[in-house]
Please model this.
Amino acid sequence: MASAALTRCQTLVIGGGVVGIAVARALSRRGVDVMLVERNADLLDGVSGRNTGIVCTGYDAPQGSIELACLRRSLTLLPAVLTGLNIPHANTGALVVARSQQEAKYLPEIVDHNARVGDAARLLTALEVKSMEPRIAPTWGAVFVPGEITVDSFLFPLALLLDAIHHGTRVRRACAVTAAKKRANDWLVETSHGPLVTKIVINCAGLHADHIAALVEPPPFMIRPRMGEYLVFPRPPAPLIARPIQPVPTDHTKGIYVFPTLHGHLVAGPTAVDVDPNQRDQVAQVSRESEEKLLAVFRETLPDADATILTRYVGLRPATNLRDYQIRWAQGLAGWLHVAGIRSTGLSASLGIGEHVAAMVFQSMYGANLPADTASLHSSLPSLADIRAQCQDSPDGSVRVADQSFRVTHPLSRRGLCL
Model:
């Protein structure tokens, strides 16, 4: 009688952020029976609900890394997905600008890094930068990176989720995983919604991936959260910049951007502040010191812009003690796969991560190579006008799609869609 009450699936994905959604989608589009569980009441309310909304090319990812491979594959897959799922986006490219003669010395190296990953970035003189972006402060030159894309941070993964659901993914929200046990031929996973039985468990738990890993083994990685702080400014009457303006990156961070959102607001961020892992669940605020720093960068970049702060937000990135993505099977435990350490490039690399993980699952489950993705792209995403109307009429800023309600969780999306 007890076994009859069990929920069964072929593959259980833990974590309803953009990475978990992309993994579920890649599998369900190839016929795998997938259950996606998220501990929060809302999907996309963790790491994925506080990112930048810029798809990057990954030119600064380590050569030979899983991260770089997933980023590059994602960029290959992205155009068809953006078009086929009717995802709002802007092919803006980005400018990496030098603010000093010393920084300008590094620009040719950035061009070389982009060339190594297959991007046709080009070096610009200060006059060419001024011609491309006349409203920004004078520079010592820049690199134009054409492959970067601006998306809505909420609508992009929502479209992926709707496609996954269409192809069979089942979703449970407010469903926390509390225990797991390896049995002879499957896993018994305890959740707040009751027990699940599955052949494969995929840990995409983001900031809590090490806690989920600890349910079955000593964690092979430790989450070392890094905080990014942002300031959001008014939408100007006419656009002041057409694309993200980025600084020359350092070994520690890509630096503070000034960028327009898909909805026209201006943003400065992120910072990069290491956070005590024991404080990862505490609600963080933009510090006074960081606010002053962000304001200074914003004013330095766009001297004529309205620097009134509309809102502030903070996002945590699930970096680990290791440099590369941690996509690996649990030691000696067949059927448990960790997908962790996805840090700040999760949205950009999500499609590539989904395919990479799906290939590992097919090899493990069927001893076969990954089948081609021949399923149709199913677009359930309403028009932007319809989404805005729904959000503005909803008390909690929700949109109803495919007989389900989804609260818009990302601050930039809420600002652009709901207010």
